[in-house]
Amino acid sequence: MNGENKCINQTNPYLPEAARIVRTYPLTEDVKYFQVRLVDMEKAISFKYSPGQFAMISVLGAGEAPFSISSTPSRPSLLEFCIRKAGTVTNAIFKLKENDHIGIRGPYGNGFPIESMHGKDIIIVMGGLGAAPLRSVLLYCLDNRDLFGRVALLHGAKRPAEMIFREEFFALKERKDLECYLTVDADDTGKWKENIGVVTTLFPQLKDINPSKTFAIVCGPPVMYKFVLKELIKLNIPKNQILMTLERRMKCGVGKCGHCAIDYIYTCIDGPVFTYWDVIHMKELI
Ligand SMILES: Cc1cc2nc3c(=O)[nH]c(=O)nc-3n(C[C@H](O)[C@H](O)[C@H](O)COP(=O)(O)OP(=O)(O)OC[C@H]3O[C@@H](n4cnc5c(N)ncnc54)[C@H](O)[C@@H]3O)c2cc1C
Ligand code: FES
User: Which of 14, 160, 204, 266 has its CA at 20 to 30 Å from residue 167's CA atom?
Assistant: First the structure.
């Protein structure tokens, strides 16, 4: 579906393009926001991607790793990422400051089937760092509000300080054209005014769902899927309209090395977005 979202480097797909960090700040204790722009302006403009796609980010001397694009293609030229400190590459990225350079190649992966979602109601369920890829599709729906029916967001974090883009989501609660429900597993501040409980405790807020007209999108920690999927099935949303993004270790990002294989599927080119229908037919489940 993303035939036009071609990798920016057509001659050598492994060659990263230089990008400058325009803005960076901490989102939580171990997650940082990065806004970057490709140095070559022509390439910055021609970097076309879909919500749900990812890019390989590299740091000289440290290596490269895949990261979801958190920005929306409806706001072009600048790319946004939320990166959690995990190991070698992410530690190196965390040391970088505004105006420092990174390498970017991509965009990769299938992304969400946006055109099939036109005219449909959208339920977005995100937990923890799952907000990184799903913020892209959420902002896309809001920027193209007439193309979609109802849009509902259920967002959960462990504690208030761990909710990434917390202020942005609070601001979105003011919108009349978005149902925005936020929750934390536990409030250690005494100031949290929203729901307390795991993300599935938000499902009773969703009233009068028209299942055949609804797409549900899920991304979060592995433990979340089982419980969220159960709720979505209870709502009778068809399995081919439940979408989720899966993470696997990746090296090449372009379907050559086999690092990301699940059965006969390469997560980097066949995914990272899969339907629930796809996933129940894979031997190695999430
Ligand atoms: C399609 C895709 C999108 C992603 N989007 C994001 C994103 O938006 N933000 C973000 O912070 N991270 C994202 N990740 C995960 C990110 O790529 C890894 O955290 C990164 O590779 C870690 O690299 P590192 O060199 O810092 O850690 P390493 O030194 O390679 O590893 C540190 C530790 O993390 C484990 N680990 C590394 N990668 C993974 C993985 N993919 N799954 C499970 N365990 C892993 C290792 O086993 C090790 O224990 C995404 C991964 C994929 C496949
Ligand atoms: S990462 Fe190399 S085949 Fe998918």
Answer: 204
Give me the domain span that covers residue 188: 114-245
**What's the whole-model pTM score?**
0.93
**What band does 1 get if pLDDT is binned at 50, 70 and 90?**
very low
For ligand 2, say whether the CB of 109 is within 6 Å of any of its atoms. Answer: no
3-state SS class at 277: helix
What CATH number is given to the structural domain containing 238?
A: 3.40.50.80
Q: Say what the pLDDT of residue 6 is.
A: 72
User: 284 with 265: CB under 8 angstroms?
Assistant: no
- On whether both 119 and 103 belong to a single domain, the answer is no
Q: What rounded mean pLDDT belongs to the chain?
A: 92
Residue 101 lies in a domain: yes
Q: What b/e sequence results for 206-217 when a residue is b if at least 16 CB atoms lie within 10 Å of its CB, and e otherwise?
A: beebeeeebbbb
Alpha-carbon Rg for the chain, nearest whole angstrom, is: 18
Token duo for residue 197:
């409980």
Among 14, 105, 254, residue to substitute to test ligand 2 (most atoms within 8 Å of Cβ): 254
Which of 108, 124, 150 corresponds to the end of one domain?
108
* Residues 125 and 201 reside in one and the same domain: yes
Percent of the chain with pLDDT over 90: 83
Average pLDDT over residues 231-237: 96
158-164 mean pLDDT = 95
**Mutation pick for ligand 2 pocket among 7, 105, 256, 264 (CB with most ligand atoms within 8 Å):** 256
Q: In angstroms, what is the span from residue 251 Cα to ligand 1's centroid? A: 11
Where among 51, 75, 108 does a domain terminate? 108
